[in-house]
Amino acid sequence: MLKDFIAGGLLVIFGALVIIISSTYGLGTLAQMESGSFPFAIGCLLAVCGLLLFLTNVQKGWWRICREDLRKWCYLRTKRNAILRGIICISVAIIVFILALRYSGLIAASFLVTFCSAFANSKNTWRGAAMIAVIMTLISVIIFHWGFNLNVPLY
Amino acid sequence: MQSIHDLFYGFGVALEWHNLLWCFIGVLIGNIVGVLPGMGVLATMSILLPFTYTMQPVAAILMLAGIFYGSQYGGAIGAILLNLPSHPPHAITCIDGFPMTQQGRGGKALGITMLSSFVAASIGIIVMVFASQFVVNLSTKFGPPEMFAIMFFGLIMGSTLSKGSVIKSIAMVALGLFFGCVGTDVNSGDTRFTFGVIDLYDGVELVALAMGIFALADFMINPQGTEVHSDNLKIRGKQLWPSWREIRETLPSMLRGTAVGTFFGMLPGTGTTIASFTGYAVERKFSKHRELMGKGAIGGVAAPECATHAKTQVDFVPTMTLGIPGDAMMALILGALIIQGIDPGPLLINDHPDIFWGLVSSFWIGNVLLLALNMPLIGIWINMLRVPYRILMPCAILFITIGVYSTQNNPFQVIEVLFFGILGTLFLLLDFPIAPVLLGFILGPMIEENFRRTMLLSNGHLGIFISHPISLSFIGAALLILIIMLLHKIKFSLRK
Question: What pTM does this model have?
Answer without folding.
Answer: 0.84
